[in-house]
Specification:
Chain A: Homotrimer. The complex is a heterodimer of chains A (about 110) and B (about 750). By secondary structure, chain A is an alpha+beta fold. Chain A contains 2 helices and 6 strands. Classes of the chains: A alpha+beta (about 110), B alpha+beta (about 750).
Chain lengths: ~110, ~750
């Protein structure tokens, strides 16, 4: 099993969610996040004074999938999240040892 | 789900415990033991009120003649069979140990007031019962103080039952524990408590709690969303909203009776002979309104028909001073309004509108005042539309409060943001009414626009302001939803916002409203994350719009120009709906604005607005002032004399002003945001524009004027506005030699002004 983590622009969340649902993914975890990558924040002018915004609001999305689905799900996310401009975010996968559904105690792929 | 079922459950427990008790005595083989010991129920169980998940609060009372081993064996034998099925809270004490425990622990003392024999020696229980009541009455004063303190702590912790969407039925303010407290207060004999007024509330809350225990299968008292539908169904309510409405109504009546009871207790002994011998200190704080015994009252013999604004004046004064509004005053006002006395004209007089804004803008202090206006049904006479959101639940995981309380909380948060906008009055008003459209299936923003229009008209806003208010209500979710769901880098996103928000001032208002609304919703609705996104959007939209708008310099008439050219002082006074309109044409001199403002202040005339302009060597000023209560009669001649003297030597005015400021310092105040000073350069007039946003207070304009004079700059014109309790002063200034200030000079003046206004 794999955990797919995606850092997205907040406004892209709706598109990505819809695309994932279209691909048969029904569960996901979404949280508010902030950070910066290669774009390195940007400069703002507020009431005449310049200041640097180094932490930019993003959305962090996490999905658990079976190994065989991982690549296709990553593709779905990347396609839906892309605007082509800087700050579009990143997607990565991590191997997962075990998954347990708390209510039923099911384990492994059944618990996804 | 009824008192009957809870009583049956309690009787059932009695039988079971009684059997266990007898069996234990038998097993120990000592029949005599039954005379030395008794088993009693205390607290809610003592009253026979047992919900499925309630604890069994029991007390073993013994004579002290039983050995500790035997006692231990007996208690264990009674409790052991209950271990898995019931949650039992027990204690084992002699009569004197019980007395000691009751003296040192308030909860024990109140729990014992409901003690009831289950089994064993009845005399032991009867003694403890009479001790408990005797002790409670003997130390009533001290006990009630402790009780009050513990209640306040619990209320802070658990919040208000009436307004929380997932409340704790027992612990929250207005909940079941408060009913027990009221019963304990009644038993103290210190005051009569009309407990019959809350009998409906008590059975309603108990029924809901009982059903919650049944529905959840647990003894928890917090009514979570996930249980509300099931509980409502068990109680045969149409839906969960109907049930939550009943819970809120019940809680409010409990809370109100509790407030009323504390109020009566606190004012006890101040009536009768005591009052004649030592009159309470009464100070007039506004027309027909006084502070007496540290609360705000409407003066006796005030005619509500002659002074229909007095109710709003009392409420606003109380809120602005951070003092409570007298319950007697509210009852009297409510009675009068019900009889059709003291009805406000439509539209409201300007004073009434300003007072409403001052009330809304008082921040935290407003919440208590608003609640009493609601409980006494005064607010519905002023704003009938408020009825439709009263105690209205919102079944939305983001919200914590009912609709009415959410709007009041939003206004509290908005009061902290009044410096961020040019029209604090519109911000506060929109905050208090932004969700007025809730309660139907229709989109609440769209319905809100239809509702806000007649309210704003009645309250007396002009057509232009009403348009702004409608925009604010319609778009109060626009910034949050756009910032989190749309691409801010896309020019189309910014254009879509620019197309519906007409100007920078509305944008600033909307930004402040979004923040206040979000903060009032709670951490689920507003976070640093969201604030950053919304701020980003606002800055981008601002850049796309034209620059900020400031108050324009006033126009002057030909007659005024002719008079100004003469260079002689002229003062004309006219009656005005808010008091007087005063025109002053005077030879210009440094500090003129603060001198004239100072003369008004020492004449006890409150400046509401001013427009001044310098023409050559003269200045034309137009002031609207309101006399304070007990202000001496004023005439053109008298004012002329005072201003003429002050123009020659202003020392006298300054001294009197400082004396007045010192006297004002003793009046209670509420926390207000710091003043803000903004500076722009106005290319069209070749002057620097200084905008001061501050809480209005006596002598404000004098201080501003004096600070400017000290900075050695020239005021070309000034536009002063008071909106509720907020003041916005716009000054067009130049260097003494002419021309705008350099940016260093401007910053210097701004920091000097801020310092002077602290």
């Amino acid at each position: 099993m794999k955990l797919i983590t995606a850092i997205l622009k907040p406004f892209k969340l709706e598109d990505v969610k819809n695309a994932l649902q279209g691909a048969g993914i029904t569960g996901m975890t979404v949280s508010e996040a902030s950070g910066f990558g290669r774009q390195g924040g940007h400069t703002e002018v507020y009431r005449g004074a310049e200041y640097t915004v180094d932490l930019i609001p993003k959305v962090r999305l996490e999905v658990l999938v079976d190994d065989k689905d991982a690549d296709s799900v990553v593709d779905v996310i990347v396609k839906a999240a892309s605007t082509g401009s800087i700050g579009d975010g990143k997607v990565w996968t991590t191997p997962v040892d075990q998954v347990i559904r708390v209510r039923t105690g099911e384990r492994g792929v059944d618990a996804i | 789900m009824s008192t009957r079922e809870r009583r049956d459950r309690s009787n059932e427990s009695d039988r079971f415990l009684s059997q266990l008790f007898h069996k234990a005595i038998q097993d120990l083989g000592e029949a005599e033991l039954g005379k030395e010991i008794a088993l009693a129920a205390v607290g809610g169980y003592g009253r026979g009120e047992l919900s499925p998940g309630s604890d069994l609060d029991i007390l073993f009372i013994h004579s002290g003649r039983v050995s500790s081993e035997k006692l231990k064996a007996l208690v264990n034998e009674v409790l052991y069979p209950l271990w898995d099925t019931k949650s039992v809270d027990h204690s084992v004490r002699t009569r004197s140990e019980t007395r000691d425990a009751a003296t040192s622990d308030l909860r024990v003392a109140t729990g014992l007031l409901d003690i009831r024999l289950i089994s064993g020696n009845a005399d032991l229980v009867a003694n403890v019962q009479s001790d408990a009541l005797e002790l409670w009455r003997k130390n009533a004063k001290e006990n009630l103080q402790k009780l009050h303190k513990s209640l306040q702590e619990r209320h802070t912790r658990a919040g208000e039952l009436a307004y929380l969407l997932e409340p704790d039925l027992k612990e929250a303010r207005g909940g079941l524990r408060d009913i027990q407290a009221l019963r304990a207060i009644a038993l103290s004999g210190m005051v009569t408590v009309p407990l019959e007024k809350i009998s409906w509330a008590e059975s309603t809350l108990n029924n809901v709690r009982e059903s919650l225990h049944i529905a959840s299968g647990r003894g928890k008292d917090r009514l979570l969303f996930q249980e509300q539908d099931k509980v409502a169904e068990l109680l045969k309510y149409a839906d969960a909203d109907a049930m939550m409405g009943d819970v809120a109504r019940a809680a409010r009546s409990v809370d109100y009776l509790l407030d009323y009871t504390w109020h009566t207790l606190e004012h006890k002994g101040k009536d009768g002979l005591g009052r004649i011998l030592k009159r309470p200190r009464v100070a007039t704080v506004a027309k027909n309104v006084s502070a007496s015994n540290r609360e705000i009252v409407i003066d006796t013999f005030t005619s509500f028909n002659e002074d229909p604004v007095v109710g709003l004046r009392a409420a606003a004064t109380a809120a602005q001073l951070g003092l409570p509004l007298s319950l007697d005053t509210c009852t009297e006002l409510s009675e009068a309004l019900k009889k059709g006395e003291g009805v406000l004209s439509n539209p409201w007089p300007r004073e009434a509108r300003e007072l409403l804004i001052a009330l809304i803008g008082a921040g935290e202090a407003m919440v208590g005042i608003f609640e009493i206006l609601d409980q006494e049904e005064i607010i519905f006479h002023w704003i009938p539309e408020w009825m439709s959101v009263r105690s209205l639940p919102q079944r939305n995981a983001l919200h914590r409060h009912t609709v009415d309380r959410h709007m009041v909380e939003t206004a509290v948060h908005a009061a902290a943001l009044t410096r961020k906008v040019q029209r604090p009055d519109l911000l506060l008003f929109a905050a208090l009414f932004h969700d007025i459209g809730k309660g139907t299936q229709e989109d609440h923003s769209e319905r809100g626009v239809r509702l806000i229009e007649p309210i704003a008209q009645r309250i007396g806003f002009d057509a232009k302001d009403i348009e702004v208010l409608k925009n604010l209500v319609l778009h109060h979710l626009l910034l949050s939803s756009t910032a989190t769901r749309r691409d801010l880098d896309d020019p189309a996103t910014i254009a879509s916002v620019v197309s519906v928000i007409p100007d920078v001032n509305t944008l600033e208002l909307l930004h402040a409203l979004s923040i206040a609304d979000g903060e009032a919703t709670g951490s689920a609705g507003w976070s640093e994350w969201k604030a950053t996104l919304v701020n980003d959007l606002v800055q981008r939209v601002k850049r796309a719009m034209a620059g900020a708008e400031v108050a324009q310099q006033p126009e002057v008439s030909l007659e005024q120009i002719a008079q100004a050219e003469k260079g002689v002082l002229r003062v004309t006074l006219e009656e005005h709906s808010s008091g007087y309109a005063v025109e002053v044409i005077s030879p210009d001199k440094p500090g003129l604005l603060s001198i004239v403002a100072g003369v008004f202040n020492i004449s006890r005339l409150d400046v509401k607005s001013a427009r001044t302009k310098t023409l050559g060597n003269s200045a034309v000023m137009y002031w609207i002032v309101t006399p304070e209560p007990h202000a001496p009669e004023i005439t053109d001649t008298k004012l002329h004399e005072l201003i003429a003297a002050a123009l020659v030597d202003s020392k006298d005015v300054e001294e009197k002003l400082f004396a007045r400021a010192a006297a004002y310092a003793s009046i209670p105040t509420i926390p207000v945001p710091d003043p803000e000073v903004e500076i722009f350069t106005d290319a069209a007039t070749d002057a620097t524009v200084i905008e001061v946003r501050s809480h209005d207070r006596p002598g404000l304009l004098f201080r501003i004027g004096a600070a400017i004079t000290q900075s050695k700059i020239d005021i070309r014109s000034a536009i002063v506005t008071t909106l509720g309790a907020e003041a916005i002063d716009t000054l067009y200034v130049t260097e003494l030699t002419g021309g705008p200030l350099s940016s260093e000079r401007a910053n210097e003046v701004a920091s000097h002004l801020k310092q002077a206004l602290k």
